[in-house]
Amino acid sequence: MRDTGVLIDHTYPLVLAGPSGSGKTTAVRELLRRRSDLRFSVSATTRASRPGERDGIDYLFLERADFERMRDRGELLEWAEVHGELYGTRSENLEGARAEGVHLVLDIDVQGARLVRVAVPDAVSIFLLPPRGAWLSRLRARGSETPSTLRRRLRTAAEELGAAGEFDYVLVNEDLGETVDRVEAILDAEESRVGRVGNELNRFVSMLEMEVAAAQTEAVEGEEAENEGTGDTQ
Ligand code: 5GP
Fold it and tell me: What is this structure's pTM?
């Protein structure tokens, strides 16, 4: 956790969702580069790895049977099927981050985000919207292998857009640096939220109250001494 003088006494998951092509993954990467109080949640998935992706770092690439076993043993905080493949967040990711005192950052789809909000009510969720225009051409280009891939990609994008209003925060990702600045501002604000600082707030306020009480006693004694000096009894 950063030493910013905030009172937060427990960490929380930060969920980032948004349609394909919203720049979510790049934003998450930049956010993690900037801050040391965050830890990326490595998802388990049944999809094949893409060039450059590292097993256990970008994703945990699993056979379907292994994924299903993990899920059936109740080891997943949430899971969803996206484009025919299974994706899920292991509960141990969250436990590990909590133990280490860092916030877990989840780059997941809207179905998963819903499940996390239910399972972990103090999670912070942000929906990233792509800017208008270029986004759709990018999405079209990406899904152009076959008409059915494109159709599926567009349908998912439409469904995901419809979920924007369910999130705590929504950002239009016009500029990567600005978007990440805003995510950081959200994190900073969350760390001062009264509902989040709980025990730490009580502890800190009690100490201040004790100091006030001691100062009050001193003030009364001072006043009494002054009154004795002047003979004024009021
Ligand atoms: P991709 O295959 O392009 O990396 O990811 C496809 C979608 O699955 C993205 O929206 C990504 O955020 C989402 N995703 C990645 N990991 C998880 C996960 O653990 N759970 C859920 N529900 N979605 C995930």
Answer: 0.88
